[in-house]
Design brief:
- There is one protein chain.
- The protein is mainly β.
- The protein has one domain.
- 0% of the residues lie in helices and 57% in strands.
- It is built from no helices and 9 strands.
- It has a 4-stranded antiparallel sheet with strand order 3-2-1-5, with no helix packed on it. A 3-stranded antiparallel sheet has the order 6-7-8, with no helix packed on it. Strands 4-9 form a two-stranded antiparallel ribbon.
- The protein is elongated.
- Residues 1-7 have low confidence and may be disordered.
């Protein structure tokens, strides 16, 4: 007989946090993938933050972080702080993966 505080068995899943620039250099897309499907996604448009991409013929590389977890819920959280964007993958409310994109790295600047 199981103890009352013992959690039911959950299977471990490999989640991939992908952060990439969207078509047209207009913003950043964050996705959480598992088993070949997109579980969560969000799009941040530079213009909503008074920013624009400043570059010619260059695109930032997609960033990927893989993490294995046995969680009941996942959620993608985004935040603009200082000179960059943070993308956090939350599993059962706790951060299990994170990517931070700075304005300088992705050649993004404030529109004046």
């Amino acid at each position: 007989m199981a103890d009352d505080d013992e959690r039911p068995s959950m299977s471990r899943t490999t989640y991939t946090l992908v952060v990439r620039e969207g078509a047209g250099n207009e913003g950043i897309i964050g996705e959480v993938r598992a088993d070949g499907t997109i579980e969560e996604s969000t799009r941040l448009t530079y213009g909503d933050f008074g920013l624009t991409a400043i570059r010619d013929d260059w695109l930032p590389n997609e960033r990927r972080t893989e993490v294995e977890a046995d969680v009941r819920t996942i959620r993608l959280q985004t935040e603009r702080s200082g000179d960059g964007f943070s993308f956090r993958l939350l599993g059962d409310g706790e951060t299990i993966a994170e990517q931070r994109i700075s304005d300088d790295e992705w050649r993004v600047a404030a529109v004046r």
